[in-house]
Task: inverse folding
């Protein structure tokens, strides 16, 4: 149901959605020292907290996970996991219960669950000292790398684990009560630069109303580069992986990540502004306020950034307007006398 202002009412929300939203908002309302989630930080990023709070205040919307964007260094986990086999158990029994080293390897994705760990995580731009010099090891130490140990790494070792430098832009998952609720969020996301945004669960199941899950994201800003690794297994929780790149290269990656973090923050702010425009009620259908959305859903207070489709339509309209203005102007030949003798001479030349 939609009221006269165009706002989606909470009466449309299924009971299942209301229960989920109540559970999520109750969890988020806990004191900060009691709240903990599964992210490396363990709490909601400060940069995205106002946006998350605003979304959760809207009818038919609730956030399920969020990240404001981060710069990180990650050491992947073991790619093989030792598991005991039936043969090893039989050998253990034949040896009187003595444990043997007989085992096989199970493939793994090398993620956090396989022993991977974060060496550095920041949800803000990385501070670069004004007096930084390539001769220093500032970034190597900052990112938990053992500088100068790249030659000792066994790159061909079966369990060699890479260290990645990453920039991951904002990602936000929002559960919506209906397709109408989801459409507003997607419109705001796509017009704010989050071009890879989308939704799943858009078709209703048997006896269930569709509750689309929206992912607001921009994969084009992502950055990932291998900067080191380790093949050591013993004492891995205390191992500092070696660096495979120079300090100057780390400086370049950090500068690039900082620039992308700035653009990511700008897009987050545009999305917040666009969502406010779309979710806020208008005062009248006949006379929209000056800050109302354009026909494509782009708020006027984001004129410093223009979508490619909007720019193309604007240039087309300006071209048509100039063409009409030229047609209205009098032709230069209308007031000039016509030389009939000259015309007759021209005609005889082409006969």
Result:
């Amino acid at each position: 149901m939609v009221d006269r202002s165009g706002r989606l009412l909470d009466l449309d929300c299924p009971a299942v959605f209301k229960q989920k939203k109540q559970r999520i908002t109750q969890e988020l309302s806990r004191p900060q020292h009691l709240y903990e989630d599964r992210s490396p930080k363990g709490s909601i990023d400060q940069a995205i907290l106002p946006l998350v709070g605003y979304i959760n205040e809207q009818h038919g919307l609730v956030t399920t996970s969020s990240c404001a964007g981060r710069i990180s260094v990650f050491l992947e986990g073991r790619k093989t996991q030792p598991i005991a086999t039936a043969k090893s158990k039989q050998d253990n029994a034949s040896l009187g219960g003595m444990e043997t080293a007989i085992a096989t390897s199970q493939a793994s994705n090398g993620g956090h669950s396989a022993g991977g760990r974060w060496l550095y995580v920041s949800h803000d731009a990385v501070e670069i000292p004004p007096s930084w010099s390539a001769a220093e090891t500032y970034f190597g130490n900052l990112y938990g790398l053992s500088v100068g140990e790249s030659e000792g790494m066994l790159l061909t070792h079966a369990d060699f684990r890479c260290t990645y430098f990453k920039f991951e832009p904002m990602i936000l998952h929002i559960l919506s009560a209906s397709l109408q609720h989801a459409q507003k969020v997607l419109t705001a996301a796509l017009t704010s630069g989050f071009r890879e945004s989308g939704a799943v669960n858009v078709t209703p199941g048997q006896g269930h109303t569709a509750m689309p899950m929206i992912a607001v994201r921009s994969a084009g800003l992502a950055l990932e580069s291998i900067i080191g690794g380790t093949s050591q297994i013993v004492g891995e929780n205390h191992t500092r992986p070696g660096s495979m790149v120079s300090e100057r290269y780390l400086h370049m990656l950090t500068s690039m990540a900082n620039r992308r973090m700035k653009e990511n923050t700008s897009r987050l702010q545009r999305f917040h502004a666009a969502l406010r425009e779309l979710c806020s009620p208008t005062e009248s259908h006949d006379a929209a306020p000056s800050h109302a959305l354009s026909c494509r859903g782009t708020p006027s207070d984001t004129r410093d950034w223009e979508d490619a489709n909007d720019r193309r339509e604007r240039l087309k309209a300006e071209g048509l307007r100039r063409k009409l203005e030229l047609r209205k102007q009098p032709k230069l030949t209308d007031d000039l006398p016509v030389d009939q003798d000259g015309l007759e001479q021209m005609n005889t030349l082409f006969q």
